[in-house]
Design a protein that fits this description.
153 residues; mainly alpha
Length: 153
Amino acid sequence: MPEIPFELLVAAFTLGGGALVAELVPKLLRRLLKRSEPSRESYGEKLSRLTENLTKSSSEVDEVLNELASIAQHREQAIKKLEIELGKLEGREKQLQQRIQELENVPLPVAEHFAKLTAAGEKRSALRDYVLFGTGVVVSTLISIILRLLGWG
């Protein structure tokens, strides 16, 4: 994705804001002129009032443009963070692929020997599990009988 320079974004927003002001100011002036009753305001006073309204509108547009620029900066920073994270993940992926290749290159006799070593441990583990289960059944049965004899069961 091509990177858009910040200055270009600000220029685009400024042009858009200018077009917006050019569109809204005449409507605003027409609305103000329609509402105002024939007054004894001089043209200088009217011009001063309209200039003040224009200045207010311009400052509001500037605030909006500044906010848009700020949002653009935040998004740019977020994209940079994501790119860094993506680079880290790509490095991790390469490491994992390399480890998989190394494991694929392990000779078959070594893998069979490793399987034999772990199988013996699993058999002992299964026997231990059966002994513990049987002991648990016997102990819970004895506790149940004792509680019944005491009248609590």
